[in-house]
Amino acid sequence: MKKVLILAALMLLGATSLPADEETVVSGQQAMNITIYPRNLALVKDRRTIDLPRGTHTLAFREVSAQIKPETAVIQGQGLQVLEQNFEYDLLTPQSLLKKYVGKEVTLHRQHPVSGEERSAQAKVLSAGDGVVLQVGNQIETEVNGYLTFPDVPATLRDRPTLTLRVESQAAGAQAVELTYLTTGLSWRADYVAKLNDADDRLDLSGWVTLINESGASYPQARLQLVAGEVNVVPRPMPIQALHRQATMAMAPPPPAMAEEPMFEYHLYSLERPTTIGENQKKQVALLKADQVACRKEYLLKGQEHYFRSRAGEIGQKMKVKVLVEVRNEAESGLGRPLPGGVVRVYKQDSGGGLQFVGEDTIDHTPEKGLVRLHLGEAFDIVADKIQTDFKQLKGLGPADVRCESEYSIRLQNAKKEAVVVNVQEPIPGEWQIQSESEQHRQESAHLVSWLVRVPPQGNATLTYRVSIRN
Fold first, then answer.
1. How far is CA 363 from CA 29, 116, 326, 366, 465, in A?
2. How far apart are the C-alpha atoms of 226 and 229, rounded to whole Å?
3. Does pTM top 0.85 for this prediction?
4. CA atoms within 13 A on the CB side of 330
5. How far apart are CA 435 and CA 449, in angstroms?
6. For 207-214, what is the mean pLDDT?
7. β-strand 118-127 against 133-136: which pairing, if any?
8. Cβ-count burial of 261 within 10 angstroms (0-12 exposed, 13-18 middle, 19+ buried)?
9. Mapping DSSP to helix (H, G, I), strand (E, B) and coil, where does residue 188 land?
């Protein structure tokens, strides 16, 4: 079907054709507070002023979220009682206008193919589902070679989502009202940028909050607050209408950072200045900044459980060693503040002074005194060969009493010009006991054992141990 054209002037006239005495449009947002929670949920507090005579009125709140949860809407005003409320989400589009005119007549305009003269004819809309079906005189047409005009726009079609409320005003005059509601379509996440120093023992950390607005509305000069933590929300069906367009990115000025405070069992972050969150926009605002934060680089080789209860032989050659950076979230380290979960991206300067990306990892919500461990990648110059050098099945006290003993050799190779320490971790199942070892082990937990093995520069070191296991 060729594109259906609608006269723009007629649409504009129809969009404002509701009688003023039947509906009072509440416009002029005076103050706005937005609290954004995890998992695509926000609380909107929208303050406006209305001037009403005493009696019953219909109020129309425009510029509300297209993904509002209407059952959560609450309006507060002096001497104002809500009788009923409706969320009008039937928006004015060419397709919705056609559907409203099914069974009615419209005017079809088209040009004569030879003379170019424009001719008009009355047409009845028979269907507006998958395409359009028109009755023009005694003919049925399924393509519109031209454009359609409509006598008016039905009052039930809105140019923007609108919340209408039937209220009883017990007093006449101007008064301030506040509309509060929950909505989806607003979300946030934390993003961090860390810059390592040359020695890999200090980093500069910047935290940003990325706001994503796909709610179908703008929030001008809003007071912004963010909740970090797991707030329980009862699952609901998806909204009837949701807008998913490509968002634009807007970077807000960096400082000042957001103020933080505990709130119930969560943490609340407040931006100390108003900000505008535009429709279909991504915006970043500064969360925190901390310089010279103490950190520790770790090389980790972690094994698996499967080779302890059976004969394995060669377990792996040139095995990768993980590189991690660990930060203690405490004031003594230069940090010491609750960190919302997010992605930490780490950079480091090369010999020419340029920043290079060296890895990223996600962190969970981390309270003060918590530990942040970032897995940035695998070491290029450090590898390991692991082999099971012996395995014995031992006699138990019965069929359920399974016992075995095995021995392992882990050879670590270091191509760097400086010595490194590799943390070798083995998750040993069952009841276990180390029979012999070339390095002293540490018991990290009931089933996790570790050895710190120093590997000389451009050299190698070998860890051997023997362990007995009983199920």
1. 38, 67, 12, 8, 34
2. 10
3. no
4. 8
5. 13
6. 94
7. antiparallel
8. exposed
9. strand
